[in-house]
Amino acid sequence: MRDKIKAVIDEMSEKAGLSEEFSDSFFSSIIDDEEVLNEFITYVKTGEFLSEISVAGYTIIDIMVFQIDRFKADRDTNNTKYNECHMILLAFDTFMKMKKNPEKYVEEMTGISGSDYDGKF
Asked: Which tens digits make up the pLDDT trace of 24-46?
């Protein structure tokens, strides 16, 4: 199973134009996090999110919405909005980092995003 997951991540990383180092680091992080791994496997198999896990109230879908919002603001220097593998890998990567340091990411998501939410203005 590990080899199959690694192969999927390597293939997605290649399609995303991400480095082998990113792929290796991503695999090392996700393989040790059963909840995120389950969400990732479900997405790869079905194209849908379980949305069963969150950090500080944010799901992986919320991170994707944040990414899309940033791309609409012409901050997408890697054409991520046109590359599903890139967007998915970065969303999962950001989510795993957010689990380790939620304050940093919550601040970025609520401070940079153009989305409206309670308390923004």
From this structure: 999 999 999 999 999 999 999 99
Of 23, 29, 25, 28, which Cα lies nearest the Cα of 11?
23
- Two tokens, residue 105: 């990411």
CB 70 within 8 A of CB 87: no
Q: Residue 96 has which token pair?
A: 């795993």
Running DSSP on this structure, what letter comes out for residue 59?
-
The whole-model pTM stands at 0.82
Residue with tokens 């957010």: 98
Contact 51, 59 (CB under 8 A): yes
* CB neighbour class for 80 (10 Å; exposed up to 12, middle 13-18, buried from 19): buried
